[in-house]
Amino acid sequence: MKTKFTHIVLGLVGIASINNAVFAENKAEALETGTVEVISTTPLQALGTPISEVPSNVQVGSSKEINQQKPLNIGEFIDNNLGSINTSNGLGNPYQMDVSYRGFNASPVLGSPVGMSVYFDGVRFNEPFGDIVNWDLIPPNAISSINLIPGSNPLFGLNTLGGALAVNTKSGASYPGLSATLTGGSWGRRAFDFAVGGENKNQNIDYFVAGNIFHEDGWRDHSSSDVKQIFTKTGWHDEKTDLDLSLALADNEMEGTQSLPLSMWGNTKQAYTYPDSIKNKLALISLKGTHFLADDKLIAGNAYYRMSNARSFNSNAQCNDNGCPESINGTPQPDSSRGIDAQNVSSSTYQDGFGGSLQLSLLKDLMGHRNNFTLGASADWSRVNFNQDSQEAYLENYPTITVDPLAPLAAYVRLKTKSDYYGLYATDNFVLNDQINLTLSGRYNIAKVNLTGGNSDLGASALTGNHRYNRFNPAVGLNYNPNKSLGFYGGYNEGMRAPTPIELSCADEAHPCSLPAGFNSDPDLKKVVAKTWEGGVRGKLMQDINWNVGIYDTRTNNDIQFIYSTQSQGYFKNVGQTERKGIEIGLHGKINKLNFAANYGYVDATYESSLPVNTIIGEQTVSKGNRIPGIARQTLKLRTSYEITPQWNVGGTLVAATGQYAHGAENNQTIDGVSPKIPGYTVLNLDSNYALTSNWILFAKVNNVFDKEYSTFGQLEQNIYTDLSEQFRTPSAPRAGWVGITYNFGGSKKTDIDKD
Q1: What integer pLDDT is reported at residue 26 of this predicted model?
Q2: Beta carbons of 455 and 522 less than 8 angstroms apart
Q3: Residue 516: is the preceding peptide bond cis (ω within 30°)?
Q4: What are phi and psi of 132, to 5 degrees?
Q5: Which terminus of the chain has a smaller tally of CB atoms within 10 A, N or C?
Q6: Beta strand segments in 201-323, E
């Protein structure tokens, strides 16, 4: 039978699950493939609520769009398509980008400010050590939908300050058949990916396997990527029960050349220092399921085990008591007598964790009105073993060279952490009448973080300490729908995050640390609390065109930021209040053979407390109202695709962002003649797909069509080669193109390009 794939958006008070399927064989599958737009009220499956009864603006990316655009990874896709999102590439590798939503980050960089939670098939994907998100571990061809959930919704647990990203994977029942793709093009890119799925209806079993092998030299020197990913899922179901067992494996190695001073932008391909590399390995196994106790009673749950191992090597230029290197026209001279001006740091982070969630959903009338109630609990346990070593080095024509590989280590860190997170939550959607519904929810969080270890500076037990955080976070929402084509919504919600182990290990102003060079002592930090107001209106212009306009205001107390005490050292500190407020406008739909989407986002991210800080290049006083660095105030995403013939589809994506302040310019002022701002940009990408036969599809894509020179990341820093303060930027990729071919066999005669 013909099937359409599923869109599930998890959420509450800003959490929605959108399902677009026309076939299901049992009640459990009907939650994933329903014929109407419904809402899941928690990260786990629940009994559905109409999307018109959810007080939130939820954005969805589909497998169809991923197949049309052929993005490199999740970060590239959401940056091109979802409103209020912008990315920065400070590490200089396309798989290691920071994602910012409404001014809150999800980042792969240890020590980066965090405020966005990520879920992978209902499993929290933020790594326990620093709440980081390694985007390179998720295979794009296994994704059925990507759902962006706004607000500090408490039901998504810790770290959901600005929003949550829910990634849902394919199944063999919804995606039968075989698909294989070869890709090649600019910068030595060559990739092979495949996916195969099927279903045995007699035994109620389905399976899905997806894999990806990728290599690219990178457009800059020393910026190669080698990525290997595989994902498998096996499902079993009957009339009342649905079970899925999945396994995700990844083994990746990536280089990055990071930011470059503007005085060296005559050659943007060059590295400032090198080498810088990271190796990531992941194994994630999870079991999720649903069971109907009755037509109006559903039990849902999941359990998982995750193991990851990350090894990094970083070269760091620095000025110290021995001075900075001599230079001629910005080029360092090969004279080791000038002193030690660099440091090489190697680290290993071994993490394993397990946990799960369990919930009960009831759809029962209350006082004669329809009522949907869900009660659940979650627990996550993780253990981390972190080791870091550094050696003195010197600069020799840009690479860093260890002074003596056999010499004693200059510094070391040995740290073991235990992070235990518990949550108890409930939500209730009460329908007052045909036009008005009320949603109430809350979650009680407990976070326990235990540290054991020390470093070369303060001793073997300097980092040892125990920390505990807890809080109840409420949410309330109201919807008013005067008719089927118009709806108003409003809501208030609160969320929290606990300081991460890396932040707690470097929070002593008297003993600053170097990131990533070392940690020093573990004073307590306060938990971060976010409070969000959100409201808006949405509707239909006609059957296939939807629009939305919304506003929001998120205030955080005790936001955490890294404060520099010297050029290379600093500490984490609670910086008082911050605020992120903005506007979101969206329009998307279809007119005949033309599909289109437009998303505009405005975010004003500011400090709301005055504080003195030391930055990379000097002392500053941050005043109330100063904008937070690294956040573009305005973003615009335009996407169109047109079916020229039934076999040929062409599309274009325009991404624009206004300027942002560089890191190190927290006071928004020019310092030592160095500009504090990074210019905005507008970039156009094109893509096309052509079906040679029902089985063979050719595709091509061109990024940055007009070869725009721009940057998404900047900081103020001292140039080690000239001893001058400069603005550093990470150059973004120039124009590039790729071509490929896909073979499809079995399943529906229509490809993902054709599916709605």
Answers
A1: 41
A2: no
A3: yes
A4: -75, 165
A5: N
A6: 205-216, 225-237, 241-255, 260-261, 276-294, 297-317
DSSP category for residue 263? G
By C-alpha distance, which of 194, 201, 267, 144 is closest to 24?
A: 201
| Helix (H) or strand (E) segment spanning residue 185 | strand 177-185
Q: What is the pLDDT of residues 666-699, one digit of tens each?
A: 889 887 788 889 999 999 999 999 999 999 999 9
For residue 673, is it left (φ>0), alpha (ψ between -120 and 50) or beta? Answer: left
Q: What is the pLDDT of residue 52?
A: 81
How far apart CA 139 and CA 607 sit, in angstroms, is 37
Three-state secondary-structure class, residue 68 = helix
What is the spatial distance between Cα 41 and Cα 548, in angstroms, rounded to a whole number? Answer: 21
User: Per the structure block, which two tokens stand in for 671?
Assistant: 């310092």
Predicted confidence at residue 463, as pLDDT, reads 81
- Judging by DSSP bridges, how do beta strands 618-622 and 611-615 pair with one another? antiparallel
Determine which helix (DSSP H) or strand (DSSP E) holds 421, and give its type and residue range. Answer: strand 411-431
pLDDT at 38: 63
How far apart, in whole angstroms, are the C-alpha atoms of residue 181 and residue 212? Answer: 9
Residues 431, 53 contacting (CB under 8 angstroms): yes
Q: Cβ(580)–Cβ(61) under 8 Å? A: no
Tokens of 452: 């054991």
Handedness of CA 159, 162, 163, 164 (dihedral sign): negative
Would you tell me how many other CB atoms lie within 10 Å of the CB of residue 203? 8
CA 131, CA 157: separation in Å to the nearest integer?
13
Q: Is 531 helix (H, G, I), strand (E, B) or coil?
A: strand
Q: Which parts of the chain have pLDDT scores under 50?
A: 1-36, 320-325, 327-338, 516-522, 567, 749-756
Q: Where do the domains of the chain lie, and which CATH numbers do they carry?
A: 27-266+308-745 (2.40.170.20)
Q: So what's the pLDDT on residue 306?
A: 95
Rounded CA-CA distance 357/44 in Å is: 8
